[in-house]
Structure formats: C-alpha cells, structure tokens
Design brief:
With 74 residues, the chain is of the alpha+beta class. Helix content is 51%, strand content 16%.
C-alpha cells in the first residue's frame, strides 16, 4: 500500500496533530510505502509571516524525527 499525507507548519505541535496524523504516519512507515511532506505553500493561506513559516517548517520536521519518523523509510 502507498500512503501520501502532509501537515501544515502553522503552529506548535499539539495532541490533535499527534493522534490525528503524526502517530499514524510513523506507524505506516513500517508497513507501507510512505510519502510524507510539510505543506509550506498550503500554510501560506493562514500564515503570512515568512519567518514564522520557516520556523514552523523546521519545528514540524524536528517533531517528526523526534517522534520516530525514519527518513530512510519515508
């Protein structure tokens, strides 16, 4: 099975992000061909500060890695 999903870097990680998307993506990397991305362009509809968008993108990537996302598997 192939899985494609993304997350907006629009703010700090919260439990809704974790249980709604991130934990599922981390589990899918073990059983599927996973393509996961950070949707920067999509976030520009709600976040106009470029520095905040860049910071949110880095935080989202760091959160994925800290929670167990393996870049070699996804």
């Amino acid at each position: 099975m192939r899985v494609l999903s993304g997350i907006q870097p629009s703010g700090s990680l919260h439990l809704g992000n974790y249980f709604g998307m991130m934990s599922k993506m981390i589990a899918y990397q073990e059983e599927s061909e996973l393509f996961c991305f950070i949707a920067n362009y999509h976030a520009q509809t709600s976040l106009s500060d470029g520095k905040a968008l860049a910071r949110g993108t880095i935080e989202a990537a760091a959160n994925f890695l800290a929670l167990g996302m393996d870049p070699e598997k996804s």
